Structure formats: C-alpha cells, structure tokens
Amino acid sequence: MTHATVSARPVADIQAEYQALIQRKRLYGGVILAVFVAMMAAGFRIADDRNAGSFWNGITHIFDYPSEVLSEAVEKVSLLPAHVVQFFPALIETLNIAAAATLIGAIFGTLLSLLATRGLARWPSLIPVFRRLLDIFRAIPEIVIALVLIFLLGGGPVPAMIAIAIHTAGALGKLFSEVNENASLKPVEGLASVGAGWAQRMVLGVFPQVGPNYVSYALLRFEINIRASAILGFVGAGGIGYELRNAMSWGQGRYDEAAAIFLLLFFTIVLVDQLSGLLRDRLTHGAKQ
User: Fold this and answer.
1) Minimal CA–CA distance to 238: which of 102, 88, 90, 84?
2) Measuring CA to CA, how many Å separate 91 from each of 13, 32, 35, 83, 94?
3) What is the torsional sign of CA 202, 206, 211, 213?
C-alpha cells in the first residue's frame, strides 16, 4: 500500500461522514417541515369548523367592506375636510397617550435597565430579579393590561397610557440594557475613585455614552405606541381608535367618517415615521456634511 493511498483513506472517510451528516440533517428538516405543515393544516381545519362562517365562503367577500367604505367616502367626499377637523382632537388625544406612555416607559425602562446590567447595577445580586421584571412587562400585551385597567378605572385615556407605559418600560428596558453592556466602564470607575455616588456615576459616566441610542430607541417606540394607542381605542380607551370603532359600528351612513379617520391616522403615522427616522439617523450617524 503506497503512502498516497494511506493518506487518501482518511479524507474519503471524512467526506463520507460529512455527506451522511448532511443527509441526516436534510431528513430531519424534512420530517420537521412535514409535521409543521400537518399541524398547521389540522389547526386550520379545526378553526374553520368552529368558525361562525366557512373561511372559503367568506374569503370571496373579503373586499366587500372596503368597497362599501370607499364608495360611500367617494359619494360624500365634500364632507371629508369637515370630518378631518371633527376628529382632529381625537387624534391629538391619541398622540398625547403615546407621548406620555413613551416618556414614562422610557424613564422606568432606563432605571430598570441600569439595575439589570452587570457592572452598572446598584445591587448586583438583584440583577436576575430586575431582568425577570422586564420580561414580565414585555410579555404581557398592552390590550390585556388595558382591559384590566378599564375594568378597574373605567374607560378613558388613562388606562391606555398606563398599559402602553408598562409594556414600553419592558421593551425599552431590554434594548437599553443591551446598549449599557457596550458602554465603557472606565468613566464609571474613575468617578467611583473620587467618591461619586451611583446616580452620579450613571448620569456622568454612562448617559453621555448611551444617550443617542436611548433617544433613538425611544423615538422608534413612540411610533409603535401611536399604533398601539389607536388600537386600544377599540376597547374603550379613548382617542381616535374609539371614534373609529363608533363609525364602523354604525355601518352604512357613517362609512365616510371611518374613511376620514383612516386617512387621518395613515398620514399621521407616515409623517411621524419620516420625522422620527430623520431624527434617529441624525442621532446615530451625526449630521451629514
């Protein structure tokens, strides 16, 4: 047996083992995909059987409602400016809910993120507690919190603001903690060496490093909260979502109002997205020369 044959055998064995491994992975992937498709099909069939109407019968009418709204809106297009003026205060209320919730959530998210970051935490032994608290705030949907608060406090913008603020604190706290982990500890250690307290070390040593990212994430969350506050209006939490629910509930005859609210909400979200995007780009990349 030559030296070339001896050295070639291990390479061939490695190639064979690699091909076998690839085939097993493909087999496992195919089995998992087949199980997933079967579960989805079975779940869809069960849901369709329990639904009030058949999915296949209802899907043919999916554009009936939008066409009715659009046709009535076109017929009453002359009333559109008056409807925009009428519902503009409700839009301002929605923006106020989102802004207040974002501000309160960002404040609590900042505090919790610092308490949940290694090297920055005031009480290192409690880091897991604060992290789980952020997980809980982030895991519970806003609409669930809002429904509980509406039951306790009654309808209005306050339950919506509190619900969105709680979820925002969890979401921003998670993002802020990831930003904090990339911050340099040298300024913090330098401040500690001259006797600075924990709050002073955070404000003077950490915030200058993470401030732009904090504001960028808060602006992004403000965009999300505008949509959330509009959705919560459907469960009685005030704002433009509440007016939209009323307009849709009355049915024909008030579809022009629903169309006006849709347009008002759409253009507001687009405008806020564009302005927020410009501000976030300036904060993270600086002013373009």
Assistant:
1) 90
2) 69, 47, 46, 12, 5
3) negative
Question: Dihedral sign, CA of 124, 125, 128, 132?
Answer: negative
**Distance from chain centroid for Cα 89:** 25
Question: CA-CA distance, 205 to 217, in Å (whole number)?
Answer: 20
Q: Mind listing the pLDDT tens digit of every residue in the chain (289 residues)?
A: 455 544 555 777 777 888 888 888 888 888 999 999 998 888 877 777 776 666 677 777 777 777 887 888 788 888 888 888 888 999 999 999 999 999 999 999 999 999 999 888 889 899 999 999 999 999 998 899 998 988 888 878 899 999 999 999 999 999 999 999 988 889 888 998 898 889 999 999 999 889 888 988 998 899 899 989 888 888 877 788 888 888 887 767 678 888 888 888 889 888 888 888 888 777 766 655 5
Is residue 130 within 8 Å of 115, Cβ to Cβ? yes
Q: Are 213 and 172 in contact (CB under 8 A)?
A: no
d(CA 267, CA 262): 9
Going through 87-203 in order, the beta strands assigned E by DSSP cover: none
Instruction: Yes or no: say if 172 and 218 are a contact pair by the CB < 8 Å rule.
Output: yes
Backbone angles phi, psi at 197, to 5 degrees: -75, 175
Report if pTM > 0.70: yes
